[in-house]
């Protein structure tokens, strides 16, 4: 007796998307920061990570690094390169990084679709 096997053609794989996208205002601000760093002889790359802290449990970290670690994800968009810490990659997939400049504060904002909750002040989040 023979078994019937159904074969389906796999859909064509789509091109790989960046784990993180940058808005035009974020790209502009990062270029300004990198130009300032080049003047000071610091050719470093911004690295985004996640640290356990705050009311909801996690917070974003931003740091300047000389070189990526072995498993860091490299995101390049519009001439700007950002690194994502390997431990934060799954949490950040699909996130949009924006730059907000207001009268009282200027900061990077992360629009993350993976967040399940956030604290009232917006500094920490829950995945």
Automatic annotation (TrEMBL):
SUPFAM superfamilies: HesB-like domain. Gene3D superfamilies: HesB-like domain. Pfam families: Fe-S_biosyn (PF01521). GO terms for cellular component: mitochondrion. GO terms for molecular function: 2 iron, 2 sulfur cluster binding. Residues 20-123 form the Core domain. PROSITE patterns: HESB. One of its GO terms (biological process) is iron-sulfur cluster assembly. Involved in the assembly of mitochondrial and cytoplasmic iron-sulfur proteins. Probably involved in the binding of an intermediate of Fe/S cluster assembly. NCBIfam families: iron-sulfur cluster assembly accessory protein. Belongs to the HesB/IscA family. This is Iron-sulfur assembly protein 1. It comes from Coemansia guatemalensis. The gene is ISA1.
């Amino acid at each position: 007796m023979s078994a019937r096997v159904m074969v389906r053609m796999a859909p064509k794989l789509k091109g790989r998307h960046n784990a993180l996208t940058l808005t035009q205002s974020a790209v502009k601000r990062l270029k300004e920061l990198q130009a300032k760093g080049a003047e000071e002889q610091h050719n470093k790359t911004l690295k985004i990570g996640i640290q356990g802290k705050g009311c909801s449990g996690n917070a974003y970290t931003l740091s300047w690094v000389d070189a990526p670690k072995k498993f860091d994800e490299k995101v390049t968009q519009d001439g700007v390169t950002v690194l994502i810490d390997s431990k934060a990659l799954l949490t950040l997939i699909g996130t949009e990084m924006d730059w907000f400049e207001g009268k009282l504060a200027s900061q990077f904002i992360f629009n993350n679709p993976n967040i399940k909750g956030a604290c009232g002040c917006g500094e920490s989040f829950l995945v």
